[in-house]
């Protein structure tokens, strides 16, 4: 009954809730009252006792709200009145400001109309003033130039040359600052003034400097032993060196003006010489007599100017650099350091003389470009000159050098062509030589470890020489072209070796065939070593950059190049390794055929009827095994003598693998063995075959695992053999072993059998001839 009543009450409330709906557009009092009653009373009728307190609380809230409403209703009109009043005041202020703005605007416009004529007149005046100021600035510059010019004149009249030089240096700096000006006449006046005084000062200082140099016996053109080496009489030495320092410093001050007025002689752009500053003025003066001597002897119709003797002028320049090096370091460099200059006297002097060489080469090369002998001789001499210039005299690679002339397109392509031509001729001669396949170190055991034939060593020396010739080229692109030539030569030499090898195929164990194999191995080894050289790693990086720009190779190859997984010689090395493997395989096959022929009698041995070990006083080698073992011994000794150590190691390991499988498959698995036969087989193998290879490794039996493990199975005592047979049989019958039963693999491992499969072991057990009668 109670539950029915509760359901009726709930329905009533639900109905009531449905009847009270909320009006969202207005303040819905019935809805809020319903919500309030539901919240405070709900379905708990016991809470109706709280109604008195609830009514009191609501009455109190109502009273408070009424008081607030009364307060607000009394305050709101006052606020509204104040707001309206403020708005009226603001409006009046705004109107007043608008009127004032109108009056002010009219006044300004009127003033502007009246002032317009004054503005126009004032603008004209301002323009005139600006023009006068420009004229004044122009006159000030002229006055400043004239003042500086007068100062230089006064200094020269009083013989104050250092002050005159300093003033001229300041004037030259002003000239540089004026270059941004559009006043062409002022610029021309400044430049002509600088030029005027520069010539006077340069002539005056140069003549004095040349006199001092003459007192020092400059230049030192004789042999070093006969040189006075710039040493004047002891009494006058301090004065001479003081004058040298004073005049050198004064000439150094003229450097700025000299660079403004003198354009250095430049070679054509096709030579791509690196930018370099002009040679400092005092060094130029010191170089003048040597330049005159050079041009006298090595230009025109002089007997010393011949195309086939480039070493004359190259050697002469090296002698001049060497003869003057000590004087420049001891006497001139301290002056430069004291003056705060960063110039190296020796390098500056060398640079001036090298420029003579570059001009000479640029003039001579077109005349001998198509004469192979002359051109090749020139290149050889230039490379020798460069080597001494860099190694002995400390010349810098960042400065212009002869390699820039040789890198010019037509000259460089000719150089590549000639280099390839002479390299191919050298390869022809080295391969046709009588000693081509003989090692020149054959009688020196320690040196002849690689057993390298003379032709291979000569060829790698040729490649090394080519590397030395081009490694100082100024650009990576030129070096990469030479690297391409080297790769071509390696491939050509490989093809020639392959051709000679094919002629020797019938005698694959012969001396020449082995020499070819040693040559292939040596070339591949050296190329692999070169791949880790810094020079070739740099070329690899340059090649990578070229490939990235041209997208000529796959992303995989780019990745390998970038990660250094491959090298610039990888393609060549892979081809050589393939050739080496083919040749070794042919040798192994040849020896293996001989071993098989020699093993025919041993294969037919009566293993089933041999006497047991107990019946023999001493075990001895089977007579039928002797031909096979002798063949093996002779060929191993022969090839150990003819092949290098690394190749012979590969050879005997490959041969051992083949012999192991052959004896196992063709002899052991093809016969049945009694106790004596098994013991004889083990004796032949462990005491005779394995020791043949003991010279080459500590445990030769590890290379004959099939034979070794087969001998273990065949020579097990009967009890162990029966037990093993049961284990293998159980393993075959049950895929899942019993918990306490050992697995077949564990049993085999315990006996020392790891290589043979379970099925092979079962076959070997069945090859045993004598089994006890177990009643099965």
TrEMBL record:
InterPro entries: EXOC6PINT-1/Sec15/Tip20_C_dom2, RINT1_Tip20
GO annotations of cellular component type: Dsl1/NZR complex
GO biological process: endoplasmic reticulum to Golgi vesicle-mediated transport; regulation of ER to Golgi vesicle-mediated transport; retrograde vesicle-mediated transport, Golgi to endoplasmic reticulum
Family: Belongs to the RINT1 family.
Designated name of the protein: RAD50-interacting protein 1
Organism the protein comes from: Melopsittacus undulatus (Budgerigar)
Gene: LOC101878115
